[in-house]
Amino acid sequence: MDYLQIRVVKIEPDIETDTFDCGNTDLNAFLKDDALRYFDERMAVTYILLYKKQIIAYYCLLNDKVTFDTGQGNERLLWNRFNRKNKIPNPKRRQNYPAVKLGRLAVSMHFKRQGLGRFILDGIKQMLIQKTDTGCRFLTVDAYSTALSFYLKNEFQYISSKDESENTRLMYYDLKTG
């Protein structure tokens, strides 16, 4: 695939989304039923990747924060470890840090296993690293259990172990290391 021919556009009412199929009913339904409403309500922005007028993938971004959960047993230890691992100096340590959440990421069944997911993540990381209009230290994602290995390969890390048995796990990428 020639990545130079891919166009990235924000979701619009005239973009036909009904034919998109990534093999996941939840991700398909979000694009078809919810993405435009989230955009209109200023909750998330969905970006569509077009290749020869065909939707080959999409992702959505929204504001987020990485937060210290004071109510859990060993969370203080985990939070201190998180701060040290990400080299946040003591005077700058806070209860939460600014982040952008990758709300959804889906690749069409016809374009899987071609490096498109990595291409999208690399583009998002570079955009957030280069954009300095506002502070943003982390990229977060609530990763489906079936996608954990994908995010680990793309340098995301787990925030804690408390969600190990859940359907999704909160993961982060430190934009300062990018």
The gist of it:
This protein has four helices and seven strands; from the N terminus they run βαββαβαβαββ. With 178 residues, it is of the alpha+beta class.
- How many strands appear in the DSSP assignment? 7
Output the structural class: alpha+beta
Mean pLDDT: 90
Indicate the overall shape. Answer: globular
Weakly predicted, low-confidence segments: none
- Any guess at the CATH architecture? 3-Layer(aba) Sandwich
**What's the CATH topology label?**
Aminopeptidase
Number of domains: 1
Task: Tell me what you see in this structure.
- With 178 residues, the protein is α+β, with helices and mostly antiparallel strands.
- The chain has a single domain (3-174), classed as Gcn5-related N-acetyltransferase (GNAT) (Aminopeptidase), CATH 3.40.630.30.
- Helices cover 27% and strands 30% of the residues.
- It contains four helices and seven strands, in the order βαββαβαβαββ.
- It has helices at 25-40, 75-85, 116-130, 148-153, and strands at residues 6-10, 45-51, 54-67, 96-107, 138-144, 157-158, 168-174.
- It has a seven-stranded mixed sheet, with helices on both faces.
- β2 (45-51) and β3 form a beta hairpin.
- The two termini are 26 Å apart.
Q: Which tags fit this structure?
A:
30% strand; 27% helix; Aminopeptidase; globular; 178 residues; alpha+beta; 4 helices
Question: Any chance you could write out the topology, listing elements then pairs?
Answer:
Layout: E1 6-10, H1 25-40, E2 45-51, E3 54-67, H2 75-85, E4 96-107, H3 116-130, E5 138-144, H4 148-153, E6 157-158, E7 168-174
Parallel strand pairs: 4-5
Antiparallel strand pairs: 1-2, 2-3, 3-4, 5-7, 6-7
